[in-house]
Design brief:
The structure is a single chain. The chain is mainly alpha-helical. Helices cover 71% and strands 7% of the residues. A hairpin with a 3-residue loop joins strand 7 and strand 8. Helix 3 runs antiparallel to helix 14, helix 5 packs across helix 7 and helix 8 (210-245) packs across helix 9 (247-254). The chain is globular, with a radius of gyration of 23 Å.
Length: 441
């Protein structure tokens, strides 16, 4: 196989696998902050042990996330040396800032929580959890600054064959940073909330730790409600940014081949890329023009306007985007259902809702990965949009055999890590919250 293709598969696998864990920890961190605020304000032993249980789930997930994330940055030096040489002056800064200003903040105060849980005051422990949440969110900000610069580069110039930073703030606040940050962090809140809801539902189905499970479910449900509604707005904001900054990506996401006004929004269909046609289309004219530009008569650029060598693939962005949106609206409906049951005091009695809550634990991860696929595949054929092509970013001296061997090693290692994570979660869930909680159920 081709070394460039294998390198892309390797990075996609390692990044996609790593992306399972940060959304859980970012989202759960803010749920736990709320729980610890209740403990700090009330002094209740119930909230003390409730927060402690979820911190243990958080810590197990954080540890695996750190282990799987370390390999990503090394790949820039091994498989993507020409990319690192070309953009290192710009790309290295936010990655370094993430380690210095975010990761150390998060990991240091997590250490305070884990090793000082019974030693420090509620106020200090609450502050530590707040710093963990802030640190995890800042970590996502710096990573997204780096990735957003690849999508919509700004604040640079090309000098001696390299991209050189000329304006740090322009590079950091490039056109896609803000919408992508809020869109991603809100997705993390949904992921963490659904994790808490799903595990709580397991206990409710088994009639175990009922008070703990019911209160955890209620708290996560309210966070999920606001986060899912906000995601509709953030998703639209991000899509409008794509319209203005990466029109060919938008055309791929919508399977939009022809430039036209009153452009229809495609709900379903099968794009035929070779013949530049669309089959079995279910459309809503002129909603694409309205959503993209706020005007039904505005023109939406089609893929035919771009040279074929500059067009992104269509199949993955189109289906990835549409399934992501479908899952997002399913979240809204599910959470509204849960709030209705909560209002009627039926939440712990409705087995269908509880079973679905358990089954939906992985669904936010599916949506997250689909969004990542849309963003990254939709940027192709560019490693940095309109600056350097992916085929020109590969390491010239790494052969396909070496990449294949390392890819197999990653698959085996990550498989072991994932198994250990599931094993740790099963043990923690089987043990349940501390004995005091059990007596309060």
């Amino acid at each position: 196989m081709d070394a460039a293709l294998l390198a892309r598969i390797q990075f996609a696998f390692t990044a996609g696998f790593h992306f399972i864990f940060p959304p859980i920890t970012i989202g759960m961190a803010w749920v736990i902050v709320w729980m610890m605020t209740r403990w700090k304000n009330t002094g209740s032993d119930f909230w003390y042990t409730t927060a402690h249980f979820w911190i243990k789930i958080f810590t197990a997930t954080f540890a695996v996330g750190v282990a799987t994330g370390l390999t990503l940055e090394f790949q820039f030096g091994t498989n993507w040396a020409d990319y690192s040489r070309f953009v290192g002056d710009i790309f290295g800064a936010p990655l370094a800032a993430e380690g210095i200003f975010a990761f150390f903040l998060e990991s240091t105060f997590l250490g305070v929580l884990v090793f000082g849980w019974k030693r420090f005051s509620p106020r200090l422990l609450w502050f530590s959890m707040l710093m963990v949440a802030v640190g995890s969110t800042l970590s996502s900000l710096w990573i997204l600054i780096a990735n957003s610069w690849m999508q919509t580069p700004d604040g640079y110039t090309i000098l001696d064959g390299r991209a050189v930073l000329t304006d740090f703030w322009a590079a950091a606040a490039n056109p896609s940073t803000a919408p992508r940050f809020f869109h991603t962090v809100d997705a993390a809140l949904i992921t963490g909330a659904f994790m808490v809801m799903g595990i709580s539902a397991m206990y409710l189905l088994k009639n175990k730790h009922m008070r703990f499970a019911a209160q955890s479910m209620k708290m996560a449900l309210f966070i999920a409600f606001f986060a899912t509604l906000a995601q509709v707005a953030f998703g639209h904001w991000h899509a409008v940014q794509v319209v203005n900054s990466q029109p060919e990506k938008l055309a791929a996401m919508e399977g939009h081949f022809e430039t036209t006004n009153r452009a229809p929004l495609k709900l379903f269909g099968i794009p035929d890329v070779e013949n530049e046609r669309f089959y079995f289309a279910i459309e809503m004219p002129p909603f694409l023009s309205i959503l993209a530009h706020g005007d039904s008569n505005r023109v939406v650029t089609g893929l035919k306007e771009f040279p074929k060598e500059d067009r992104p693939p269509v199949i993955l962005p189109f289906f990835g985007f549409h399934f992501m949106v479908l899952i997002g609206f399913a979240f809204v409906a599910f959470v509204v259902w849960g709030l209705y049951l909560q209002y009627e005091n039926l939440l712990d009695k409705n087995k269908w809702f509880l079973k679905l809550a358990v089954l939906m634990i992985p669904l936010p991860h599916v949506a997250n990965l689909l969004g990542w696929i849309v963003a990254e595949v939709g940027r192709q054929p560019w490693a940095v949009y309109h600056v350097i092509r992916t085929r020109d970013a590969i390491s010239p001296n790494v052969d396909a055999g070496a990449v294949l061997v390392s890819l197999i090693a990653f698959v085996v290692a990550y498989g072991i890590l994932f198994t250990l994570w599931i094993y740790m979660l099963k043990k923690l869930i089987a043990k349940g919250p501390d004995p005091y909680d059990a007596t309060q159920a």
